[in-house]
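Input record (Table S2, row 465):
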Amino acid sequence: MLSVVSIGPGSLDLLTERARARISSADVIMGNARYIELIREIIPKGSEVITGRMGTEVERAKKAVELGKHKNVVVVSGGDAGIYGMAGLVLEVIGDFNTDSKLEIIPGITAASAASALLGAPLSNDFAIVSLSDLLVPWSEIEKKLEGLAKTDIAVVIYNPKSKNRTVQLEKAYEIFMRFRDAKTIVGIVRNAEREGCEIEITALEDLPDSYHRIDMSTTVIIGCAGTKNLGGRMVTRRGYERKYNYDSGGGNTGNQGQEKRDYIEAGSRIWEKSKAIVGDIVSKYSGSLSEHERRVVERVVFANADPSFLDVLVFKHNPVEKGIRSIKDGKTLITDIEMVKAGINKKYKGKVKCFVNAPKAMEIAEKGDVTRTAAGVRLAKELIHDNIIVIGNSPSACLELFALIEQGIKPAIIVAAPVGFVNAAEAKEMILSSGIPCVVVKGARGGTPSAVAIINEMIEIAYQ
Ligand code: SAH
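Output record (S-adenosyl-L-homocysteine complex):
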């Protein structure tokens, strides 16, 4: 068995479990001496270690393929083995024949991810990776790619920026970017990410030459785009919310227009903070009988609806927030009445999220029993609802069906009841309040998906803090 194993940027706790397992059961471990050093402490005693210098990769790959026919051979590769790493080379050596050879490639954390995390989040939007190494690729080709990318408003990650013998490539790349990009474009430099001697710097494109002295073969350089900012010492690329919220009617995102747009976005984050403060203020006036966690849920609902009057209709019964947080931590299944509520559940949630409204069986039940589809969906979830979380954000009849199930002995762990409407909604919610089950209820005719989702998502937020 031959395994090409990615070992990540350096620190052993960024090694995947699978990589660790293969290394610990290897008969032979091959790799560049620097990478072998990085994993030295987890190399099993008795395994044969074969190191090689940079530039001897082809022979090493051939030998690995040969030995792999009879032994557990691990070829280690820094970062991700598939990104400028040994995986491609091993596959080329194997070629078309030998398709039955046992080979696996184990992915890992590439330098771009490691550097990005240390800088902030510079790769939150589209990006490209380019290697400046012209040992294997002619410089003219690399230059063409750099020009294309410099002209495009996209973040660019540079690998192999400079070595002892290759220093002009970075200077040329700098000139190309200065020709096409705003000189103030944010640039991040990370040397020895997740290794001893880690250095992080955020600078502007025009000042890059001042940092040449600290850039070497263990450095990754990230050139931002128009949406990239230095936010309190962190390099962050905006994802494009300014377009979604129509701050700017123009479509482009370059040059001065980009600058203007960035100012708008900054205003956007201030608006968010301000409205949070306003909501906090409103809720604090009513918070006498609320626990800290309940207060957070109330704030979230008021915030989501931009409506302080939710304070009058939001009710907590039988300590539902703490019960909900515990159920969330336990990864209980979350059942919703409609797809829109399901879609709104925070994607961080680790448990299952189910909705049966569109299940063919629900349609059948609805037709036969003359009940609504949402009620049929709840009936279908009967077994699942017990001891799990149910969130109703739309349908009073789903709420009535739930109450009927509770009367049959089904006991949800917690209920969020925020169905909306003039018919049955208020009554159905009163029934839930009388059921003895921990519940958060939006009383009366009001409610809806935004409220239901706000309630459960705040609990998820608290649970995962
Ligand atoms: N397969 C590797 C990349 C090999 S190319 C990966 O996925 O990360 C080698 C280049 O990667 C280096 O010249 C440097 O630019 C970058 N690099 C690798 N490890 C790094 C580290 N720990 N810190 C910063 N840059 C690193």
